[in-house]
Amino acid sequence: MQTIWQNRVKAAVQHRITANTLAAFNTNVDVVVHLEQANLAPLLANERIDLQKVKQLLDTDIPAVNNENEFLAVLMQALQEGKSVHIVLRDLAMLDWLEEVFAERQESMGGQAGIIANQMAGLGAHSMVYTSLLSPKQASMFFPEVDVPVVRDGLSIVSVQDAARPGDQIKENWIFEYAKGERFELGGHVIVTPRANRVILATRPEGVVMAFDPDMEEYLPELGKAVDVAFLAGYHYAPAAEGELAAYLDTAMGSVHKLKEQNPDLRLHYEYVPMTADEAERTVLKAVGREIHSFGINENEIKRVLRLYGYEQERAAIDSNECAYTLYDGTLRIMDELGFERIQLHNLGYYVVLVKDPQRVDLEHVREACLYASAVNGIKAKYGGYVLHEQLWEAGEIALSAIGFRQLEIFAEEMRRRGVDVPSSFLEEGILEFDSHAVLIIPAHVIPEPVSTVGMGDTISSSAYAYEHSRR
Length: 472
Description:
The chain is an alpha/beta fold. Helix content is 41%, strand content 21%. Helix 6 crosses helix 18 and helix 15 packs antiparallel against helix 18 (456-468).
């Protein structure tokens, strides 16, 4: 059985993605700082820091960062509790100060759309990106092969460097990472971090919009004709207020409808990101499910979505016995609730994929696409960064996980226990068809001690869906 699956991986990695892809909307610059006592010395000695004021802030709720003292208080609270924090930096003038204080840092592409656009280019796709802010610095972080649709006497497709706009602001996310057991002395406080985690200080510069510019609207049908697969990201930034949310979704989903208008074969994917407001999230996912075909989610995120829509029994089943069957059962509820024609759930060592009937793509090709995506993700986990097509042959030599093969067995056992006729070939095929849909259980690679785990869901989903809709 394992040999058959491994040979499929070796065959899949011989192919290139030939689809024309578009990734929109959220891109930013990620600035990563690895916190240690030594690199906090310039911060503590900085004249803008008043340690007495910081001490007064430690027991208060800080909803957003407005000054340097609030920043240090947020940082100290997070280190003390070992918790993950995502907070907005309101005063953009502080960016220059952060660069001065934290001289040792790494800058890279951030945001789902930016990461996906680069990865598609690395794998050989004709990759386009659309983003509301494209400063020269942001543009420099894209692969040179990435193109951008612009309005210049009509619709034009130009290189990302030619599309850069010097007047645009930069959206930056400062990410402060720290290890477990790290010792910090801060203003008389001694903190030993209880676990590894990170603090994300995010900016919301003027002009950052998770939608197409009004000037682009009339050209969206033409743009859609030039695209095979589009990855639309950033809708989780939608405003929570009811009136604002309705207006935003009316515009955003209207744009998506226009994008599909002249290309019935265009396929759209949305990768799940949670929102802070439950009611707004329910509304956004319902709207997205009406216009977008494919949905990507992981084993933890699906429990949140099941709770949002009241599927407590399915959520509890995953909580008590997470396996391919309980994840399938939960995913089926979400497919029925939201209307997606395809959902890909990625978990450690295996994927659960549901495809509605009638199927647009042969299920064997869907399976091959998932194995290809596992190969891409395996190389990313092993080496970090973006994966080039030329690297993929190595994944064919890396064994698929024992976890995945065991989940094939568990799924077959659970289905038979419920009276479903599961053919003996299922362990080799991984495909089970019903009247309304098909389910695929796909073993995947597990890389011990991965170099990188950031963006794995985006990498898996985008690689699989673009491969699925590539021409042979």
